Amino acid sequence: MTNTFDLILKNGTVVNHDGEGLRDIGVRDGKIAEIGISGNADAAEIIDCSGLHVLPGVIDTQVHFREPGPTHKEDLESGSRAAVLGGVTAVFEMPNTSPLTVTQEAIEDKLNRAAGKVDHGGMFCDHAFYVGATHGNPVELAELEMLPGVCGVKIFMGASTGDLLVEDDEGVRAVLAHGQRRVAIHSEDEYLLREGKAKAREGDWTSHPEARSAEAAVRCTERLLKLARETGRRIHVLHISTADEIPMLAAAKDVATCEVTPQHLTLEAPDCYERLKAFAQMNPPIRDSRHREGLWNGLRQGVFDVIGSDHAPHTVEEKSKPYPQSPSGMPGVQTYVPLMLNHVAEGRLSLARFVDLACHGANRVFGIAGKGRLAMGYDADFTIVDLKEKRTITNEWSATKSGWTPFDGMNVTGWPVGTIIRGRKVMWGDEIIGDAAGKPVRFQETLGR
């Protein structure tokens, strides 16, 4: 008797909870139906993955796609195009848009935009949206965080791009006291950032880590962990940039998870500012070798739970302004997988650890329903990679509206060959296939809402 599937991935090396091994995968109705197919099997589509590794679909839990608002530098369609070209199957998008994503109406508007009902064809990858915390909406957050398509609440304790800011302990405590889902936080002490503006030297990007000091990050994370314990609220600390935060976060794993970015693991001050100037400028800043090595040590010790790209594009014209007028942020969703596969190739982390950070971690931290694992019954999301392919990252390859990457000219080993979402081939061989058909990510805590 022939076992029939919608899709079979044949002859690939599967990387999942069971280790690595040659296994065929059968997909039916958008779900993983069988791993290691036994007996006769056939499918409407068979993809030969010989020589390739089949990973769970990579999830980027921090992107800024700018829509609605300054869509001249990105929108949901273009950002999701970059995502799938880079092997990313789902993204969590941030609320510092214009208008701010702080109401039910704003969330519904984003979901409509993602579905292609406004301005463009919609998003190619699956997606969820953060709701932003303000001094005025803590009480409403308990209901807003439970809306379909919402991945959680986001607090900016230090000002970055946009107008969202809750800088004081009283305000943060009020946010943490309302609701139950994990809260993601940009942890830089706004009071020290205001003092640090005097340290920004005109036209000198090497002063960016002085203006936004390591102390500002450390002090804010100290405050934040204390508030999380007081309120008993789970938190997720974004884009850690200092070695000094690692032991604090390691001692708070009961309440806090945390994220590291490929940029902070790959670039190093002052070299990056001397070479790239504003194109290396982000918040919190890229720091020196001590901090970079501290981040790698934290990764090796298991302190980090996820990798997020903090994709935050600006145009070349905007980035060409002199420091500190130049805006902070850089594209990253499309280079996330190639950069981290190159670190795998160079022995800085194992492929299994990459999968844990890029896939399993998002599933655990955010309680994703049916995504983040390559296992029977889960969504048939796959990031298919060639670990041996040598490529050069270029501005021309970048699909973001900004048209640049700080890694232009970087040679890497390891490349995303295919992106499959819910059993549908969305990207193969650097080509997007078909129309945008992304769907909202579902979460265990909000099922049935």
Verbal overview:
It is a single chain. Helix 8 links the parallel strand 11 (235-237) and strand 12. The chain has 14 helices and 17 strands. It is α/β, with parallel strands linked by helices. Helix 4 crosses helix 7. Strands 1, 2, 3, 4, 5, 14, 15, 16 and 17 form a nine-stranded mixed sheet that branches.
Q: What is the rounded Rg? A: 21 Å
* Average pLDDT level: 97
Percent of sequence in beta strands: 15-25%
| Silhouette | globular
Q: What is the tally of beta strands?
A: 17
Quick one: biggest sheet?
Answer: 9 strands, mixed
Helix content: 25-40%
In whole angstroms, the N-to-C terminal distance is 41 Å
| Protein structure class | alpha/beta
Detail the poorly predicted runs. none
Helical run tally: 14
Compact summary:
The chain is of the alpha/beta class and 449 residues long. It contains 14 helices and 17 strands.
Question: What is the topological layout?
Answer:
Elements: E1 3-16, E2 19-28, E3 31-35, E4 41-48, E5 53-56, E6 58-63, H1 76-85, E7 88-93, H2 104-114, E8 126-132, H3 138-144, E9 150-156, H4 169-176, E10 183-186, H5 190-196, H6 208-211, H7 214-231, E11 235-237, H8 245-250, E12 256-260, H9 262-266, H10 271-276, H11 289-300, E13 306-307, H12 316-319, H13 336-345, H14 351-366, E14 382-392, E15 411-421, E16 424-428, E17 431-432
Parallel strand pairs: 1-4, 1-5, 6-7, 7-8, 8-9, 9-10, 10-11, 11-12, 12-13
Antiparallel strand pairs: 1-2, 2-3, 5-14, 14-15, 15-16, 16-17
